Amino acid sequence: MFPTYDVIVVGAGHAGCEAAVAAANLGSRVLLATMNMQTIAQMSCNPAMGGVAKGQIVREIDALGGYSGIISDETAIQFRMLNKSKGPAMWSPRVQSDRHAFAAMWRQKLEAHPLIDFWQEMVTGLIVKDKRVTGIHTSLGLEISGRSVVLTNGTFLNGLIHIGEKNFGGGRAGERAATGLTGQLLDLGFESGRMKTGTPPRVDGRTIDWDALETQPGDENPGRFSYTETNPISDQIPCHIAYTSPEVHETLKEGFDRSPMFNGRIRGLGPRYCPSIEDKIDRFADRDRHQLFVEPEGRNTCEVYVNGFSSSLPEDVQFKALRKIRGFENAKMFRPGYAIEYDFFQPTQLRRTLETKLIDGLYFAGQINGTTGYEEAGCQGMMAGINAHLAINEKDPFVLTRADAYIGVLIDDLVNKGTNEPYRMFTSRAEYRILLRQDNADLRLTPKAEALGIDVADRMARVEEKKAGVKAIELALKQAGVEPSQINSSLEAVGSTPLSEKTKASLLLTRPHVTLDHLTEALPVLAKAINIHDEETRQLAENSIKYAGYIEREQALVDKMIRLEGVRISDSFDFHSVNSLSKEARQKLTEVRPETVGQASRISGVSPADVSVLLVKLGR
């Protein structure tokens, strides 16, 4: 009935979808197994992609040939570039998505791929022989053979939904939990834990007084995620901002005695940076209001997502408190918010390829690794799918370093440090974030995709065109001299010191408030040479010149890290035999089994002195 597949992907969320297309686009025959074909690429939580640091990840997925960026662009109802008031290392693209269109387009893309097959059924176990995975068991008792398996189970592993004093099994509202796999993985020697996440109530937009809320429109000149020619967004739909109040807080407190968070029924740890509304009220008791983002679910629905009001309180308390919010006095709920607990597996049990250390050919990606967020899941799925294909074809693994991509930072953090709370990406986690900007992801990663054998010919042509454009702009700025009479009025307007003598345009651009637009407005000849290039190329050139000193400084740190990454550690190296290592270092190094000294240096509990000892021991 079934052939032997190259890669079997279990779960069709964001991680599973990217894993399937990544392996298939490299030539593997893929089976995508899901419990429900109708919920492929479901946006289980908020209907949006990107955001702070997450937007950089989506652009990186796109630069490597993934589909998240393309589908986000084609189904967006609003685009905003966040953090524009800060430096370009912090700029992060975000789209509000049409939830139904997003999932539908993902399914269309997957079904159009000739190397992807589907099977709708619960996967209850793995077939493992001699510490190697060889397939899966299903709830119908079927055995499906595969040369590798990628588990992307999301919140479904023994998922338990909580609403007030009620709880019931489920991986998502209206869907059953997945059982069987956790027990087998524990028997195989894996370490598991429990985590918690939550979602807010959905509200009927027809019952909201929109005039009472603050409007949050999209960008006047919206950008996009993908480096391909996706359709530009039109007819943007605004989001809105509402606020809680002391009255709302007091109403919510009425249900605290029935809250599973406060009475001990929820044991899993939730995301620190996305707490439930009751957690906010409890932790920030001095705050008399909290901001809520009121987000449309799509173009053709009145359903609204109340971002910031995630709750597991009883439904009657949620409803009563909602109606105390200004603008929500007559609101009707489609369904209440809820919390969900689920199993995850410590990611220190993985190699940097996301293959498990205990079972060859078995990969974990997404929330099973303790992460939270569509973007974090999608990039893990893509990396697992790529590496599963490479491994079965006996090719070198594909690993991104912390200096290559936010994806590299995420995976490096997970496999070296593990996590005891849902891991979310932030720009602050990336020490080389000036190098890892959202505007240069294609320059950083598309050549790597080409080297892997992914068909990115059109993307590479754009990369080469962009590189040439940046060089041309930099040259024009270095050659152009600016007279004080040409620019001083513009400099004074932005609070910059006027010139007293002729200066090169490139030097002027390094000033904090001076932009390329200021220079081209003052110098028509310069404008003629620069404005032939598209906006993204111009911005990239501006950033390269303005932050050249910082970029060089970070690159020097990267070069030092690369030297440490070049010192490999044998799989059989006995850390306990090196008495000059600290006791904690010996324990952590033995547990994680780093592949290089660079990786060892980033493990919690391993000090610079321990790194020096390792270098001496390894003859370096």
Care to describe what's here?
Helix 2 runs parallel beside helix 9, helix 6 (246-253) runs antiparallel to helix 8 and helix 12 (457-479) packs across helix 17. The chain is of the alpha+beta class and 620 residues long. The chain has 21 helices and 23 strands. The model has no long low-confidence stretch (mean pLDDT 93). A six-stranded antiparallel sheet has the order 15-16-17-18-14-19, with no helix packed on it. The protein has a five-stranded parallel sheet with strand order 6-2-1-10-21, covered by helices on one side. The chain has four domains: 7-152 and 191-197 and 344-452, FAD/NAD(P)-binding domain (3-Layer(bba) Sandwich); 202-337, Elongation Factor Tu (Ef-tu), domain 3, CATH 2.40.30; 458-551, Arc Repressor Mutant, subunit A; 566-617, DNA polymerase, domain 1 (Orthogonal Bundle). The chain is 36% helix and 17% strand. The radius of gyration is 26 Å and the shape is globular. The longest helix is centred in the C-terminal third of the chain and has 23 residues, at 457-479.
